[in-house]
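Weekly structure sync, notes
Attendees: PL (lead), two postdocs, one rotation student
Agenda item 3: pending single-chain targets
PL asked that the sequence for the first pending target be pasted directly into the notes so everyone works from the same version. It is reproduced below exactly as submitted, 228 residues in total.
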Amino acid sequence: MSRPAPLASEISILQSQSLTTVVQRELEMRIMSGGLAPGAKLNEIEVAGQLNVSRGPVREAFRALEQAGLLRTEKNRGVFVRAISVQEADEIYELRAVLDEFVGRTLAARITSEGLRELRALVEALGAASAARDLDEYTRLNLAFHDRMVELTGNGKLVETYRRLVKELTLFRREALSGSTGALPDSTREHREIVSAIAARDAELAGRLMREHVERGRARMHAAVDPA
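Predicted structure, written out during the meeting:
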């Protein structure tokens, strides 16, 4: 028995949901890349015009991004890209340190040969970006490296929580997150040591190195924000 053709109202809902997803992804990409800076005001009509969609999907995308922690709505003022304070960035780093230690321990116990090959390839790419002093590429690869590590744990809730924290932290000043290009060799070395510990199945060492890596990132953030 064939499935009944969808009603016009159902088609309209599906189209709206699809457009909302497209708008949401586009705005998220602009926020994460720095195209929309923290504190920037978003105008529903302007965004709809830029993306050639109606205002409905834009409004829904705004709501979804607010729930994801990337936007904030101020009564009688409008919608803004969230700005993260140093204190909030500190809190995120503290939580990430705990989660990353768990990731290191978990991967040391269960990572596959294929997973190790993936991480080693990413570390080599990080080394090449560091040698070229390509901060944009290094930042992209660094995010990909840590995201893949979390994926390899096989814990879906951890992936969801971790990605939200990373997105929120990306709202912080780019310089604070990435540090100067002079910090890239140290960061690359830390990544190599982490993968080596995981490959050696040393859960305690892998967990400790992961925590220390996050703590050094936090220290670099503070140094970038307040060199004194």
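Discussion points:
- Residues 86-225 form a domain with the Four Helix Bundle (Hemerythrin (Met), subunit A) fold (CATH 1.20.120.530).
- The chain is about 75% helix and 5% strand.
Action: rotation student to compare against the earlier draft before next sync.
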